[in-house]
Amino acid sequence: MPGAVADSAIYGGLFGDAEVARLFTDAAEVRAMLLVEGALARVQGELGLIPAEAGAYIDRASREVQVDPAALAAETARNGVPVPGLLAAFRKEAGAPEMMRWLHWGATSQDIVDTALALRLRRVLEIWAARLDALVAVLGVLAETHADLAMAARTYGQGAVPTTFGAVVAGWGRPLLRHRTRLEAVRADVLQVSLSGAAGTLAAMGGRGPEVRAGLAEALGLADPGAGWHGERDGMAALAGWMAGLAATLAKMGEDLLLLTQTGISEVRIEGAGGSSTMPQKQNPVGPSALVALSRQVMALAGLMTGAGAHRQQRDGAAWFTEWLTLPQLCISTGRALALAGDLAGRLRPDAAAMARGLEHDSGTIWAEALTFALAGRMPRPEAEAKVKALVGEALAQGTDLRRLAARDWAGLDLAAMEAGGVGQAPAEARAFAAAVSLPRP
């Protein structure tokens, strides 16, 4: 097993996400840091904090120079951050020492690294939003199409009352709509410029620091937080918390599919399911299994990411390094889980016959609650409950359908009406979710 499973040539197709992973490569980080340095110099030049020609030169050079990430390894290992090595390589490649001496004026390494991260996270959040929209769109169609397809609802793994497959799908999808809304708040939390200087005071900019920070935010299309946030990691914790919440929702979908595709239930089929090396009959639910595993990993890593928010004093290398070790894998696994859920949703095929058999399992005793309330119109409810409980025991012992026994004991009881209303609000809830998916976004 390789050390980085998501990047593995063997396992990457199962656990990796190339589109998101590209934003966490060495090349992507170096390019983002150079863009931040260039924009910082340009803004400072426009404000007169450094010579305007120097600012323009540094900005142009930041878009043109090529820095080999491997050349930064030794300096990064020694300094704990890639920025000192990057600055040295940038100055060497750009030439013009008189211009380049104004590079990185009044900033510190964490300003550059965190702002470069925000630039890359912006694209990550765009990818997630698009995948969420695609996923809920497919679930909306499934919910509408199968709003009336009756099946057994199960609690504690046992048949409870009838529901519909459309309502089950809506149960997967409604939280995703809420996660999509919450994602906008997460954008505001993390897509912020970081410019604090050595310890949050911006003293080296001689009172012009707030202007520079505002200008840098505008130049990069990020928000200006109005202060430094080197040790304030609640935004990163909010991002991790959002990923954990989403993962729990996707895991629920995966767990349900593992049960619904299980031999003996087989109420849902997944087109293109996995095969076995020795058992040709197997249709293994590989997708749901991977979805659950990825979600568990995300939820665990989110806790580690949240704990990294406990920074010492103005800056804490240990806490910051913990973010570096955790966040890329968190984002890659979240992205893969979203992509996988969307793929799975498009390959689900409910089996109406199997669902009908599920409703008839255990001699139709799934109708016990509905029968109790039907009888409660004729007698006190406690008496109705006692009679139905006794009838359930008889049905199970004799293998006789509960409804047949009810017809025997209570002539004139409208069992057809009872069954017609047995799914309750399930169809309406399925259609309401489908309608919510189709509503335009504000």
From TrEMBL:
Entry's PANTHER family? ADENYLOSUCCINATE LYASE, ADENYLOSUCCINATE LYASE C-TERMINAL DOMAIN-CONTAINING PROTEIN
Q: Which residues form the Fumarate lyase N-terminal domain?
A: 38-299
Does Lyase appear among the keywords? yes
Q: Which organism is it from?
A: Neotabrizicola shimadae
Which PROSITE patterns does this chain map to?
A: FUMARATE_LYASES (PS00163)
Lineage here is: Bacteria, Pseudomonadati, Pseudomonadota, Alphaproteobacteria, Rhodobacterales
* SUPFAM superfamilies reported in the protein's UniProt record: L-aspartase-like
| One GO molecular-function entry | lyase activity
Which keywords accompany this UniProt record? Lyase
Q: Kindly provide the name given to this protein in its UniProt entry.
A: Adenylosuccinate lyase family protein
- Belongs to which family? Belongs to the class-II fumarase/aspartase family.
Q: Which domain of life is it from?
A: Bacteria
Q: Which InterPro entries match?
A: Fumarate_lyase_CS, Fumarate_lyase_fam, Fumarate_lyase_N, L-Aspartase-like
